[in-house]
Amino acid sequence: MDREQLTQDLPVGGQAVIEGVMMRVPGKIVTAVRAADHRIVVREEAYDPLAQRYRLLGLPVLRGALSFFEMMLIGLKALNFSADVASQKEGQVEQREEGWREQLALWATMVFSVGLGVGLFFFLPLLAAQLFGLQENALEFNLVAGAVRATLLILYLWAISQWREIQRVFQYHGAEHKSIFTVEAGAELTVAAARGFGRLHPRCGTSFMLIVVLFAILIFAVVDSLFPLVFGHTQSLLERFATHFAVLPFIAGTSFELLKFSGKKRNAPLVRLLSAPGLWLQRITTREPDDDQLEVALFALRRALNEEVEANPSC
C-alpha cells in the first residue's frame, strides 16, 4: 500500500492485548506481542469480513452488527495469543498451533464474556428501573436504565483500570491510537513521530460502547411504547428483556455506522460535540505509552501495511 494512499479514511483498526497490539487492515490481521526475552513475536492471518464476501451482508446496519460479533471473536483470539506468548518463559517463546481444545476454550470464553456482559450491563439496569416502579412510562424507564447502564460501564472501566496489568494494556491501547493517528497523518511510522500524536481516537471501541448505551435509550423507549399497542399489555421484566435483546443487533449495527461516520467527519463541529463523551471515557481506557510499547504497535501496523520491518527488533 503506497504511503500516498494513506488518509483519514484508511480502514485501519486495532486492539490492545496483553503486552502487545493487534492491527487490522483490509485482508489482514497482525498481532504483535512483546515476549519475556524482549523480542516481538508476531502472528499474521488473512481475513476477509463476511460483509465483503457476501454482498447482502454488506448492507448498512447489517454489516455493522456482523462486524461487532466478528471483532469480538477476532479480539478474543488475539488476546489468547498474547496471553500465550506473555506467559512463556524467556528463551522458550514459540507459537503454538490451535487445536480443537483451544477453539473450544475460545468459544467458551466468548459465551461466558457475552453472558457476563448481558447480565451486568443489560439485565441489571432493567431490574433497577423496574424497582423504581417506572414500568408504565417507557421513556422514564429507559432513561433510568440507561443511566444505570452508563454508570456501571464507567465504574467497571475505572475499577479494572486500577490493576497494574490492565494499566499496561491501557498503555498499549494508547500506543495503538497514536500509531493509527500517525498513519492517518501520512507521517513516518517511527516512535519519534508517533510520540507526538494524541492517545484519544474518535473511532475507538470505547466510544462505540458509549454510543450503544446512549442510542439504546432511544430505541428501547420506542420499542417499549409500541409493545402495549401490539400486545395489549405492559411488558413484564422478562418480556422487556427479551424485546430489548431482540433489537440489540440493530442497535449495535447502527452504532457501528455512527462510529464510522464520526471518524470520517471528525472535524465537523457537531460531530466533535457528540464525540466528546466517548473521548472523555478514553481518558480511563488509555494511558500514555512508553517507547517500547509504541515500537510494538508500530511494528504490528507496519507489518499489516506490508512495510519492511526487522523480524525481532531490540530496543
From TrEMBL:
The keyword Membrane is assigned to this record: yes
Annotated TM spans: 104-129, 141-160, 208-229, 241-259
Pfam families assigned to the protein according to its UniProt record, in alphabetical order: DUF1385 (PF07136)
InterPro entries registered for this protein in UniProt: DUF1385
Keyword annotations: Membrane, Transmembrane, Transmembrane helix
Protein name stated in the entry: Uncharacterized protein YqhQ
UniProt lineage: Eukaryota, Metazoa, Porifera, Demospongiae, Heteroscleromorpha
